[in-house]
Amino acid sequence: MALTSRSTMLISMVIFVVQVSSAQECSNYNFNQVFNSCIDLPVLQAHLHWNYIPSTKSIQIAYRANQTSRGWIAYAINPSGPAMVGSQAIVAFQSSNGSLVAYPTPITSDKPSMQPGALSFQVSNLSAAYANNEMTIFAILGPLEDAANVSHVWQAGDSVENDIPQPHATSGPNIQSMGIINFIPS
User: Fold this and answer.
1) pLDDT tens-digit map of 35-50
2) Which first-to-last residue range defines the signal peptide (predicted)?
3) What ranges make up the beta strands (E) of the chain?
4) Can you tell me whether residue 54 is helix, strand or coil?
5) pTM across the whole model
6) Is 119 helix (H, G, I), strand (E, B) or coil?
7) DSSP 168
8) Which of 36, 87, 126, 177 has its CA 20 to 30 A from that of 170?
9) Nearest to 123 by CA among 147, 142, 105, 102
10) What H or E segment, with its residue span, contains residue 91?
11) Which candidate, 62, 80, 26, 47, places its Cα nearest to that of 140?
């Protein structure tokens, strides 16, 4: 039985609706810990959950994004403004031995090494998780000088070779994944 173009369009719409509804918005997502704030980021099917810790001027984060087990994700704060270069990033991926890896890496050029390195602020309690085609980075970042006006960048790439994240796409959502965020609750 041949499908008509209308039938094909309806099937495509159903598949799209199922895919969109399978991604949970941040307000409906539950972790084993409580996050007081969250935002559904506008591109890359990503979400940021956080708690601001006033006593240390630090941010406890859970950054999660749709990803395959072959890809990588990254979340970064850029103290110098809304751009990739200058970002202080945390990257996560599944290593060649099958374990999840998460580490800090400074982004110093348009073609960063993506090797582990020190950031301009402290990173603690760093870990990663992978389940249901979603990768999550957990960390505490800071102290931050100004948690009310923070330039942040989030990213995803399709491949990891020899345990090094490979370059992400340089068009579309991958170059739109930056903004300003206020971590301090109102």
Assistant:
1) 999 999 998 899 999 9
2) 1-23
3) 37-40, 46-53, 58-66, 72-77, 88-94, 100-106, 123-131, 134-141, 150-157, 160-161, 164-165, 178-181
4) coil
5) 0.84
6) coil
7) P
8) 126
9) 142
10) strand 88-94
11) 62
